[in-house]
Amino acid sequence: MSTIGVTQDLTGFFLSAGIVGAAIAVLCALIALIALALGAAGVTGGAAAVWIGGALLSLTSGFSGQWLPAIIAGGALLAALTLGGVARVVVRALQNRPVVASEAPAVAAPAVTTIAQPARQLGVRTVTPESIR
Q1: pLDDT means over runs of 10, the chain (133 residues)
Q2: What is residue 96's predicted lDDT score, i.e. its pLDDT?
Q3: Are 76 and 84 in contact (CB under 8 A)?
């Protein structure tokens, strides 16, 4: 078996690995978009971190001469971060708008009774020599 035969045999594997990497990267970009829109910074960071692994895996398709999976992976994160930022602005605007009287619920919520709880002491107690004896 020559070197050319081995390279051609691995071409299919590298292309498949690149497509799987691009799929992982696109999925993580979608998760980052939703998390960014909702303001969940930790989930956004986690999705972006896993996206890096998917994007690196999508680069393996370059060994078979196909760069489209890597371009799709990069474009997915770019689109997700852009659309997620725009969606975050829209979500904040919708959260801050006042409730119109016609949008108020027709049925009043039942009154909730609360049980008074004793006040809890908060703070740090200092240990003195007299308290030890």
Answers
A1: 66 94 97 94 95 96 94 96 94 82 62 66 69 67
A2: 83
A3: no
DSSP of 19-80, one letter per residue?
A: HHHHHHHHHHHHHHHHHHHHT-HHHHHHHHHHHHHHHHHHGGGGGGT--HHHHHHHHHHHHH
Q: Dmax over Cα atoms in the chain, in whole Å?
A: 88
Number of Cα atoms under 13 Å in the Cβ half of residue 5: 2
Cα separation of 19 and 32, whole Å? 20
At 83 the pLDDT is 96
Quick one: pLDDT at residue 6? Answer: 61
Q: How many CB atoms lie within 10 A of CB 14?
A: 18
Helix (H) or strand (E) holding 10: helix 3-38
What does the radius of gyration of the chain's CA atoms come to, in whole angstroms? 28
Contact 72, 26 (CB under 8 A): yes
